[in-house]
Amino acid sequence: MGQKIVRSACRGCHGGCGVLVTVEDDRVTGIKGDPDCPINRGWLCIKGKKYHTITHHPSRLTDPLIKRNGSFQAVSWDQALDLVSERFLRIKKELGPESVVLGYGTGRDNEAFIYRLANTFGTPNVLTAGHMCYGPRIVTGITRCGNLPVVDYEGRPACVIVWGANPLVSNPDEYKGIYLARAMLRGTKIICVDPRRSMVAKRADPWLRIKPGTDGALAWGMINHLIAEKLYDAEFIESYVHGWDEFVARAGEYPIAWAAAKTGLGEDEIRAAAEMFARHRPAGIHWGVALEQSRNCVNTISLLICLMAMTGNLDRPGGSVFYPNPPVQNASQVGAHRVLDPDVRGRRLGGDRFRLADRIGVINPKAVWDAILEEKPYPVRALYLISTNPVISRANAKQVMAALKKVDFLVVQDFFMTPTANEADVVLPASTWLEHDYVGDLWKRHGWVVARQKAVQVGQARSDYDILNDLGKRCTDEKFWWPTIKDALNEVLSPSGLSWEDFCARGFLQGERRFHKYRTDRFRTPTGKVEFYSTIMERLGFDPLPGYLDPPESPWSSPDVAQRFPYQLITGARIPSFFHSENRQPGLLRSKRPEPLVEMHPEVAAAKGIVEGDWVEISSPRGAVRQKAVVTDRVPENVIAADHGWWYPEDTKNLGWDRSNIDVLTDNAFETCDPAMGATSLRVLLCDVRRVDGP
Q: Are 474 and 81 in contact (CB under 8 A)?
């Protein structure tokens, strides 16, 4: 067949990087960054460069599987999808559509199609990572200022706060690390907020090493100093802020001395950081998911939006801006959200409790596990999980596993046999990004979409879109679906006037760049202003002003627990070769980090008799797992930093789901979650460590 080069867009993590894919004899032999792609400009991480080792991995799922008598048997696509549709429709008839729950993992570009199936089938229950990943920033941004603020690196910010993120290692959502790196080289002032010494922290102008989980306290401290010294944009506040006086009064409840005590920082450190951000304009805040996976999630995000606004940095070039969408149907339009019956929407699991999350159609996972295990408030009988591995990636893994074992009918769609797929009744082989066409980045808010073009075909694997389109025709009215996926892509692109072929020839589309839109269009909130006092939060029954909540487990908020578990456990630091629980299959990417690592300070290691390379047991009130010790002052003395996402595909017994999986230790009790969003506190809890003899 010879050699060809396919121009596409990577999806090894959150995606969007332009790539040139070399194909020889229907096999990918090389991937490199596309220098003509404006999103990554030729830069590409290790996952992208070596993703073909995942696509062509010998353990790939290549045929639909049905479990019979405890073992999987290969079947045809028609057999598998006929069984799935028959069971879904039976449950819908007997119990109602809400007893079928659909779910997906983190931003794989299939969200629009999954919601379309849910909405046309009639279930309000879509299980996502959105309660604790990206969703809180989206809905809090919409609530406070009408949209999601994104740092405008092209506008050359004079100062950037990198808060709870490590963009030089991880490149999620709207961002690529290359832009931060170039800003550093230009001399942009960098303020890094992180308890762990990251690559960004080592290069920051001030590194604010806060106690884990106290981000909101630091934000209040900075705000108080700006108010006291009048280092705010009074003209912007007068014209475009709702609730300034009430906000100033609330700030008085959190003085800078209180913030210093909470965060472990000096008052002068907080003052200096606040002044740097206020005096070096334009400035932006580059935030990360670490802020969201906490009990204080919505408060913290709200405060950072207030910081952006009170310094006059919202929607100005080089600040935190609102990028207009490109001329395509967005994910919400494709998702057919208006089709769902409002009465059914009111039955969304957990929607009555986590009412802010309910506004964007996401649910707290525990609400689903409870509905399976306890049948409250009603029974859930079927789960359809796509590109997600919740046994490894959701809090309280033991409860997740119990729910998967009990649910009547479980369908899993993935690349490999994961611990989640291993419990399924039907397993459907999904294609990787190298095996399908799609309009990539449709869900992001950076103003771009990219052409993801199919390069190869592996076995009978099909794209998520193709499978959902086929299943939708079986389970719902065919009028909601398309003859082929190319027809769907042409419809998505229809506002631009481009066909799929035209779009591929261009490679990408960008929305028109405009700034200061609020001067003519106002902010898209009920008052038309940035709502420091939120009328939406007030209507939902929550405090309209930001506040502060301590972590549910910490030495100061739960001293009794701390007596038995004296160290603060933080989780989730990104590993370049992995994407959450993905890429653990033995091979090139796994070889970069063959075993799970846990970081501890030299003084902790000495006290516990632990040396570099020892296996240690990490325990919490929920259980214990084992990882390998790294002794380093990269973490503070009382902090333990553990890898997340670990399982062992080479373990033929149970895929090692409970050996090193840090979510065996995490808690998902509703009272430990963010009260408005349901965000799970994955990042900050209490633990102990001890040396053990082996893995």
A: yes
Two structure tokens written together for 161: 């706060």
Six-digit token string for 589: 């990417």
Cβ atoms of 688 and 568 closer than 8 Å: no
Which structural domains are found in the chain, ordered by start?
Answer: 65-134+326-510 (3.40.50.740), 149-321+516-539 (3.40.228.10), 559-692 (2.40.40.20)
- Taking a C-beta distance cutoff of 8 angstroms, is the pair 112, 491 a contact? no
What residues pair up with 283 in beta bridges, in sequence order? 159
Task: Give per-residue pLDDT as tens, 514-572.
Answer: 999 999 999 999 999 999 999 999 999 999 999 999 999 999 999 999 999 999 999 99
Taking CA 599 as the corner, what is the angle to CA 597 and CA 603, rounded to the nearest 5 degrees? 145
Distances (CA, A) of 115 to 104, 126, 465, 647: 10, 7, 11, 29
**b/e 472-491 (16+ beta carbons within 10 angstroms → b):** bbbbbeeebbbeebeebbbe
Q: Which residues pair with 544 in a beta bridge?
A: none
Q: To the nearest 10°, report the CA torsion of 665, 670, 673, 674.
A: 170
Tally the residues of the chain.
Answer: 695
Q: Could you give the angle at the alpha carbon of 438 between the alpha carbons of 434 and 439, nearest 5°?
A: 130
Q: Which residues contact 353 (CB under 8 A, 6 or more apart)?
A: 364, 367, 670, 678
Query: Is 237 exposed, middle or buried (CB count within 10 Å of its CB: 0-12, 13-18, 19+)?
Result: buried
Strand partners, 531: 242
Name which of 430, 429, 464, 509 is nearest 334 in CA terms: 464
CB neighbours (10 Å) of residue 589?
25
Q: For 588-644, what is each residue's pLDDT tens digit?
A: 999 999 999 999 999 999 999 999 999 999 999 999 999 999 999 999 999 999 999
Nearest to 117 by CA among 483, 486, 433, 478: 478
DSSP output for 302-344? HHHHHHHHHTT-BTSTTSEE-PPPPSS--HHHHTTGGGS-HHH
**pTM exceeds cut of 0.90:** yes
Structure tokens belonging to residue 438: 């799609």
Instruction: Name beta bridge partners: 430.
Output: 462
Give CA–CA dist 42/39, Å, rounded: 9
SS3 content of the chain, % helix, strand, coil (to 5): 35, 20, 45
Our measurement of the distance from residue 148's CA atom to the centroid of its chain's CA atoms, rounded to an integer in Å, reads 15
- Classify residue 642 as left (phi > 0), alpha (psi -120 to 50) or beta: beta
DSSP string, 465-526: HHHHHHHHHHHS-GGGS-SSHHHHHHHHHGGGT--HHHHHHH-EEEPPP---THHHH--SST
